[in-house]
Design brief:
Elements: E1 5-9, H1 13-24, E2 29-33, H2 39-54, E3 60-63, E4 74-77, H3 93-110, E5 115-118, H4 123-134, E6 141-143, H5 146-161, E7 168-169, E8 172-173, E9 181-182, E10 188-189, E11 192-193, H6 194-199, H7 205-216, H8 218-226, H9 233-247, E12 252-261, E13 267-278, E14 281-285, H10 292-315
Parallel strand pairs: 1-2, 1-4, 2-3, 4-5, 5-6
Antiparallel strand pairs: 7-10, 8-9, 10-11, 12-13, 13-14
Helix pairs in contact: 1-2, 1-9, 3-4, 4-10, 5-7
The chain binds 3-acetylpyridine adenine dinucleotide.
Length: 320
Amino acid sequence: MARNKIALIGSGMIGGTLAHLIGLKELGDIVLFDIAEGTPQGKGLDIAQSSPVDDFDAKLVGANDYAAIGGSDVVIVTAGVPRKPGMSRDDLLGINLKVMEQVGAGIKKYAPNAFVICITNPLDAMVWALQKFSGLPKNMVVGMAGILDSARFRYFLADEFKVSVEDVTAFVLGGHGDSMVPLTRYSTVAGIPLPDLVKMGWTSQEKLDQIVQRTRDGGAEIVGLLKTGSAFYAPASSAVQMAEAFLKDKKRVLPVAAHLSGQYGVKDMYVGVPVIIGAGGVERVIEIDLNKAEEKQFEASVASVAGLCEACIAIAPNLK
Ligand code: A3D
């Protein structure tokens, strides 16, 4: 059986990290694509030269021509610009929307059967635009954000409770980052919901609220420290988990930005919800009952994503 082929559109900080992780996990052969000449070729060669040391077999190719992504099983998109200190994700909209148009055309032509994972910000609007520009089936185009947001939440909770990250689960809904909706009653330590842990005296409501806020601001905290770009290790790990769920038909239940066609009362938008990912892409959107407070937060999050989609339509009316 031939190896899987994974194309990375954008070979910057996340793209390079993705290639390294995909190699180490032997998920398939890798094509690094970028408009910058030499960057994808250089990173590909460097990672290939680590393969004899780390014992993995993968072919790595760097390219500046979309033909190289032909026949890919998975395409992960990070092309565009990241945030600098003081910028919001939404400030990236105009420039990255144009990039999505080019990337969508490249995928449509050369990899129409791929499972496409978008990471470019502002995520929920960019994945929505990418699906429209590429014309691929909606269940085959998803955005990575929820796994990262919940990983940040899980890490901070594990640190607070002094337990293994493996025993902490977290459930987040809604748009990426600032407008994410953490569902504390569905987030647990070894199955014990967070509100019960507050009652048990493991933490206070005030501390929990601080952790939620730090999670929402998790991306900005790293941008502020790095100064020249945004987070890349954890975003890459999160996208690889999604690619693996698809390639191995794992039927994983993961929070992703998925296309909604009426679920949660939302039509033709991408919003972060729990889904099942297997060989069929997004095989099922899981709809849970929200209480009044959660519903209000979710609606605010959806409204902010809707505003970004409107801003995209103002720039590219063909998206309507
Ligand atoms: P960076 O290291 O700048 O890499 C982006 C790459 O895209 C560069 O190598 C560019 O040359 C390339 N590029 C630019 N325009 C094009 C084009 N038209 N076609 C192909 N390649 C192009 O950024 P990064 O890897 O740190 O981040 C990439 C994106 O991910 C940014 O938009 C970030 O905001 C976003 N991001 C999202 C998350 C989420 O959780 C959703 C987290 C972190 C970063």
